[in-house]
Amino acid sequence: MYLTTEYNTIEKSILKENTKENKSLSIFLIIFGFFLNQSSIIFGINISFSDILSILILLNIALTKKMIIPFQTLSFFIVLIMSTLTASVYIVPIIFNVRPTSMQILVNYLKLCVNFIYLLLGYLIAKSDRIRKVFSGLSIGALVVGVLALIFSVIRIPFINELFFFGGVRYRGLMNDPNYFAVLQILSLVYIISENITPRRKWFFSTLLIISILMSGSKTGLVTLVFIILMGYLKRSLRIKSNVKSILISFGFFIFITFIVFYYKSIMTYVLPKISDAIPIVKRLEPLFLDFETAIVDGGSGRNRAWGTALELIKKSPIFGVGIGTYLTITKEVYNYGSIAHNTYLQLGVEWGLPLTITLFSYIFMLLTKKQDRDIVYLKYMLIVILIGGVAVSFNNVRIFWLIIGCLIYYSKRHNEFEI
């Protein structure tokens, strides 16, 4: 009897400690997610508070003996490191007669290691069934930054204006790039729409996020937002029953889109100048609506030259690429340009070479197309957001990109599908 009582006491004590640990970890993950909304350039390196938290989370997982590293994923990164290092040190000097510094290569390999850490974190957090805590934190941060956007658009303080607005006009929140900020807000929008909250809250939060996206003046963000809204509407239209109400709504939407298509130029020519007079940031978006070709060349985008340069580099080293930490040096010295590709696919194609790049995106495509639980569909939508935005921005070192891939790798493994 005494032994039984003693055992029950010990068991209750262990359960209490585990509950405390679980609560602490959950709070920690929410804070980690919150700081995914923050990034700053320090000594030429893009650093976030979430990087420090990611190491602490990994240490916590290691100390609790729950650290599992997917073997095939690790193997892929080892091959990637060896291949890109060979390109950086041996191939680039031969083909381009350019020798990048050791520091440039080291800094960029550090970024690659950070990418792997976030992928591993995504895998392990998903395995612990706490990934929604991270995205809850991300969404809370996005909403806070969205509220600040409204406040600082009315109350102008020089120091705050410089901190939160790129060029004094484009809102960037706690990020260093308005495009990256806009895509992060869209990710939070996708997550909030997937959450089980009241429609009124969902509409309020969504409206706040959309306003902050528009305030960023990001063409990439706007195009991505339109794409994801249309995708969501199409998916919903195919899923809902064909009752009279849904047919009328779909028909009305079709009529509206048809009207916009036929009178698009006239509507935009009339409406946009009036809006831009009231909201100056809209002026930057005018070319996107009136002349798409101009939009990707003017207004600081210059993507036609960036993409052309990237394609030239791929032609010269298609198999091994140019390696890590060499891109800017080559474009400066060889092409007198000095800019990244402004395209995730081209950026990786240049740096990694086509075989490894095609392997990665083929695998991502398989992750997106494999049937999995409905409760993780939002992860696929979030990944699609990054892939769409990646057409106009280099997102290869974006932390949340690798975090989401890590999550989907775990869920694919859990369903005995496949693993990279």
Short recap of the structure:
The chain has 19 helices and 4 strands. The protein has helices at residues 2-34, 49-63, 71-96, 102-127, 131-154, 158-164, 178-194, 199-215, 219-239, 244-262, 264-278, 286-290, 292-295, 303-316, 327-333, 344-352, 354-369, 377-389, 399-414; strands at 40-42, 45-47, 165-166, 170-171. It is globular.
Provide structural commentary.
It is a multi-pass membrane protein. The protein is mostly helical. The chain has one domain (31-419). It contains 19 helices and 4 strands. Strand 1 and strand 2 form a beta hairpin. Helix 1 (2-34) runs parallel beside helix 5 (131-154), helix 2 (49-63) packs across helix 4 and helix 3 packs antiparallel against helix 4 (102-127). The N and C termini lie far apart (53 Å). Mean pLDDT is 80; it is low at 6-17, 240-244 and 295-300.
